[in-house]
UniProtKB/TrEMBL annotation:
<dbReference type="GO" id="GO:0006950">
    <property type="term" value="P:response to stress"/>
</dbReference>
<dbReference type="InterPro" id="IPR000835">
    <property type="entry name" value="HTH_MarR-typ"/>
</dbReference>
<dbReference type="InterPro" id="IPR036390">
    <property type="entry name" value="WH_DNA-bd_sf"/>
</dbReference>
<dbReference type="InterPro" id="IPR039422">
    <property type="entry name" value="MarR/SlyA-like"/>
</dbReference>
<keyword id="KW-0238">DNA-binding</keyword>
<feature type="domain" description="HTH marR-type">
    <location>
        <begin position="5"/>
        <end position="144"/>
    </location>
</feature>
<dbReference type="Pfam" id="PF12802">
    <property type="entry name" value="MarR_2"/>
</dbReference>
<dbReference type="InterPro" id="IPR036388">
    <property type="entry name" value="WH-like_DNA-bd_sf"/>
</dbReference>
<protein>
    <submittedName>
        <fullName>MarR family transcriptional regulator</fullName>
    </submittedName>
</protein>
<dbReference type="GO" id="GO:0003677">
    <property type="term" value="F:DNA binding"/>
</dbReference>
<dbReference type="GO" id="GO:0003700">
    <property type="term" value="F:DNA-binding transcription factor activity"/>
</dbReference>
Length: 155
């Protein structure tokens, strides 16, 4: 609830911070860091859209995650060491590398998706379908606004 002693901006920031904290506690996948969960989930979806025999280009992963190449490399090293992904060098372009999920990685992604679905089902039960749809519409509207604002500043 909005605290009348705070301005709306402070209330929004507080609400997002509180949500983020609660979300991090409830969307955990045992044995994975949040960044690893995000990486594997993104790779799973990225591989569905980047049809290449060797997997997905590391450069595309960096762009989608919006993190530095060293950060992606560090995550890839950890995930490869644990047997979740494999990295392959492009035989035609030695500078390009590709990654894909292993069978073990696919199993983990299935658990991630199952956890996410369960949490969203629980949230829908808590809020009700109508309020959940309203929340989605408001978040979509806010995202559209922020994206347009960011685009206008890039010019």
């Amino acid at each position: 609830m909005h605290n009348p002693e705070e301005d709306l901006g402070q209330s929004v920031v507080r609400a997002f911070a509180n949500f983020k904290r609660a979300e991090m506690q409830n969307f955990k996948v045992p044995g994975l860091k949040r960044s690893e969960t995000r990486f594997l989930f993104m790779l799973h979806h990225g591989l569905r859209h980047h049809k290449h025999d060797l997997g997905m280009k590391v450069a595309d992963v960096t762009a989608i995650l919006r993190v530095s190449k060293p950060s992606v490399t560090q995550q890839m090293n950890a995930l490869e060491e644990r047997g979740f992904i494999i990295r392959t060098q492009d035989p035609e372009d030695k500078r390009a590398a590709y990654i894909q999920l292993t069978a073990r990685g696919e199993e983990v992604v299935a658990k991630i998706i199952e956890t996410f679905h369960k949490n969203f089902e629980d949230m829908t039960s808590f809020l009700g379908k109508e309020e959940m749809e309203r929340l989605i519409a408001l978040l979509d509207k806010l995202t559209e606004y922020l994206n347009k604002k960011a685009e206008s500043k890039e010019v």
